[in-house]
Amino acid sequence: MPSDLDGRLSPVERFGRELAACRRDMGLSQRRLAERIGCSPSLVGHVEAGSRNPQLDFAEACDRVVDHSNSDYFVRLYRRIHQSPSGPGWFLRWLEEIEPGATILRIWAPFLIPGLLQTENYARAVFLGHFSTPEAEVEDQVAARMQRQQILSRDNRPELRVLLDEWVLERPIGGSEVMHEQLRHLASVARHRRVTVQLVPYDTACTDGLTSSFVIAELADAPTTVSVDSAGKGEVSAENDLVTLISDRYDRLRTEAHRPGESLARIEEAAERWNKKS
């Protein structure tokens, strides 16, 4: 089955590209697929070309007749097309395909412990601090974040190379007990063989990382892709110029960072300071 992670494809183009690839894998013409779905061949052609938005009934019909390991695959692609651009839709492809398929994740986090390394209580405090988020949705978001972390317990889990601004250890997210628990967890994860955590000193002259957090995902069978946070909707892209820019920023920040052993010691010291405050 196809796995085209080209960040230049729009959601509509992605739906069409996937449908066309699945149809060819099944040895069907557009006319034969249209007969099975119950629509016109021209509609199939327009959807595959990315010139027509598929509707929900069309996506559901595709899932019924097209061979795919995920029974709701085309419905999920349909939802991505119709996701509000001001909501979390920009991150959906990252969560469903890119992050789980990565072999290496290089992370820069200047403000918070990154989501993959957060404890449940820390994540809850983060979401509660988003005043635009209804409290009824907080627990769903916490559960989704914990579910996302399951990629770290797989046999083929990605290698993590994490850079944290040193101030992240001092920011009182959730209070003393939450911070103590979070930093003990961070120290534990940092000892894993496939994880490297380094602190970038708060007094570094390098300002490359002050604008946003970001993640660089290296994949075995797709282009390197970046996720860049912003105060707006953020961005996920495999566009070469952006990937190069973000990779250069990561490399410059890493040259300023403490070594992993020293970073681990500083994390443990910070955890003890929070413990004494609790």
Explain how this protein is built.
This protein is an alpha/beta fold. It is built from 11 helices and 6 strands. The protein has helices at residues 11-25, 30-37, 41-49, 56-65, 73-82, 92-101, 120-128, 135-148, 176-190, 240-256, 260-277; strands spanning 102-109, 159-165, 195-200, 214-219, 225-228, 235-237. Strands 3-2-1-4-5-6 form a 6-stranded mixed sheet. A hairpin with a 5-residue loop joins strand 4 and strand 5. The longest helix is centred in the C-terminal third of the chain and has 18 residues, at 260-277. The radius of gyration is 22 Å and the shape is elongated. The model is unreliable at 1-7 and 84-88 (pLDDT under 50).
What is the helical fraction, as a range of percent?
40-55%
* Strand order of the biggest β-sheet: 3-2-1-4-5-6
Structural class: alpha/beta
Number of helices: 11
Distance between the ends: 53 Å
**In percent, how much strand structure appears in the residues?**
5-15%
- Along the chain, the helix and strand elements come as HHHHHHEHHEHEEEEHH
Number of strand segments? 6
Average pLDDT level: 87
| Form type | elongated
Model regions low in confidence, pLDDT < 50 over at least 5 residues = 1-7, 84-88
For the biggest sheet, the summary is:
6 strands, mixed
Radius of gyration: 22 Å
